[in-house]
Every structure is written in C-alpha cells, then in structure tokens.
Amino acid sequence: MSERKVLNKYFPPNFDPSLIKRRKMPKDRQQVVRLMAPFSMRCTTCGEYIYKGKKFNARKETVEGEEYYGIKIFRFYIKCTQCSAEITFKTDPKNTDYVAEHGAARNFEPWREENPADEEDRLARLEEEENDPMAALESKALDSKREMDILDGLQELKSRNARIERAGKEGSEKFLDRVSSGLEVGDREVTRKLTEFEEQRKREEEEDEEEIRKVFGRAYMDGVPDIELEEGGGASSSEDDGEGPTTPRDGEDAAGPGPSSIAAAAAVSTASVKRKLEAVEPTPADLLSAASKSIVEKSFPMAPPKKKGKNNALANKLGIKLKGK
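Request: output the structure for the sequence above.
Response:
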C-alpha cells in the first residue's frame, strides 16, 4: 500500500519497456462519463420531458468520418429516465452547440430560430472577400455609405426633435400666460362678488336690527326697565305720574330721536304706554285682571289641606302609650 504513494518506483537494471505488450484497444471504444443534459428534450418513445442540466451516466465515443476543421465530433448515449430508451446526441462545433440525433426531440427555443441560408451567405461572402481584395473594397465602400445614410437619418431626427421641443416650450409658455391672466381676471371677479355679498349681508343685518328695535325695543328709567306696550290708537300717552326724561332706546342717540325713529313713528300709528316696574318681581296672579282671577278661582277652588289624624290603632295593639295624650 505504501508503494502507490511514492513519487519514484523501483525499476530493475534489466528492465526493457519494449518487451511490454501493448493492449489493443478498438478505435470506436466507448468511455463512461458523467454529464448533464445540454438541452431540454422530449423522449420520442414515452413522451417524458428531460430538462436541461439533468445528470446522466453516459457513454462517449468518437464519431468516425466526421470532423470540422480538424475538430473531432463526439457522440453521447444516455437512457430515458421513464422508459430507459436509448437517446443519442452529438457535438456541433460549427455552431458551438449539440444536436439531438436519435431517441429524443429537442424542445423549441425561439432564440435559436435563425435562417441558415443567411448564415451560409454571410460565410460565403466572407470567404470571397478573403480571396478577392476588390470585392472586400466594394463591400467596405457599401458599408461606409450605409453608415453615412444612417448618420444623416439620425441627424435629421435630432433636428426635428429639437424643433418640436422648442415649439412645445413656446406653446407651453403662451398657455401658462393665458392661464395666469385668466386666473387674475377670475380672482378680480370673485373678489368683486364677495364684496357685493358682504355689503348686501351687512345691509340685511342692519334692517333686521332696526325691525327688532321697533318691535322689542325697551327703555330704562332709574335703572329699572320699562315695558313698552303697543296698542292700536292715535297719539301716544304716558301714565307716569311725572313727566321726566326717558332713556333712549337701543341704537338711538341721547340728544333726541333720530331720523329713522321719526320716520317709523310717522309710518306706524301706534300708542306706546310705558309702565314702570316695581323693584319686586310680580307673581303671575298679580298680573291677571280681576275678571281673570274670578274665573281661575271658580274653576280651581283652593280647599285648605286636611290635617292628618293620628293613627293610634297600631300603638294600642302593641301596648305602646304615646306621649301627648
């Protein structure tokens, strides 16, 4: 066992390598290799799908009679994972790929869908250019002309895009100016309408206050409010004992009645009777007239409350003697 780990092995003095017989190996000898499926395929026997990258123990052999510029082509044998049918594929050095040969069909791959005729034409043209310098010069001239045409088209597109961009900027500026001017006009209109609305609201509030003062106006004398009673009649009369100065109503000046009150007095022919309230607030019964008082007393007679008699029955039963008897 230690002999296999050494670097140098012992050879006897009489060793002759020419006397060793060489093994005869067949040219199409197969080797067992471990590989992964180079493409996704479908078994033609059972229909099982084999995805790309699945590992197999394959047999490899060299294809006899097929080469590509001196590069050998190899064939691989694998078995289907479902039915164990034999599947073969070989290398394709021309396209740096693999080709399904037997037992399976390669799945469709759109990126590999190319026209082989165009590829062959391109290869033939390259070979011709290599052999004919005049053809190479003509192809270069055609390529330069094509490039010039492409550059001219690009320059035209750039100029047109720049022109459109400038026109768009000018149009957008004009549009913004129109919008801003319209907004200014609209703001002025809105401000004017708001001012008119505020003025109208103030006028209505003043009219309402004037009407309230006319209907619910109250005067004050000696710190005690007077009740103003309006009765239908001609001229106004006062029931006060003495004619003294009266305090102005709300909103009137102390010097005298204003023009609004004069106009209201002229328009409405009413008699105002002022009565001074006492310091003590009267009861509702005092405010009624004599006739109303008699009607209320007849309808709701006020009987004096009955005195509760003392219940001594329970005390007698219990034998309790109450005090005060």
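Residues 315 and 321 are 7 Å apart (CA to CA).
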